[in-house]
Design brief:
Blueprint (H helix, E strand, L loop, with lengths): L3 E9 L5 H13 L2 E6 L5 E3 L3 H9 L5 E9 L2 H12 L1 H5 L15
Helix pairs in contact: 1-2, 1-3
Length: 107
């Protein structure tokens, strides 16, 4: 199969949640190619390296452009999956919940 290189820019409105970052990392680890994110200072972050990915994505604020470089097979499919993970629709799957206060009971 042919390897190809694809570059894309994502418009991220809100900071990605940890679950989304982990999904991106798992996608990169299971991909038979490489996925990189390029920072504004032209530094390259390997998406398969979870500590680097977390450090990079958690430092970004709201309303930013995330530039990705995908190198390998079926780059269009991987791009679609990445867009789905980064979308606001994906964020809505993670609903906030609150813990109830502990109740003391005498036995």
């Amino acid at each position: 199969m042919n390897n190809k290189m694809l570059t894309s820019t994502f418009q991220i409105q809100k900071r990605l949640r940890m679950e989304q970052i982990i999904q991106l990392n798992e996608l990169a680890q299971n991909y038979k190619g490489k996925i990189y994110f390029i920072t504004g200072k032209k530094n390259v972050v390997d998406a398969s390296k979870l500590p680097s990915l977390i450090a990079f994505l958690l430092t970004l604020g709201h309303n930013y452009e995330l530039k990705a470089l995908i190198d390998g097979e079926q780059t269009d499919d991987v791009l679609e999956k990445m867009e789905a993970v980064c979308s606001l629709k994906e964020r809505k799957q993670y609903k906030a919940f609150s813990l109830q206060q502990a109740v003391k009971v005498k036995v």
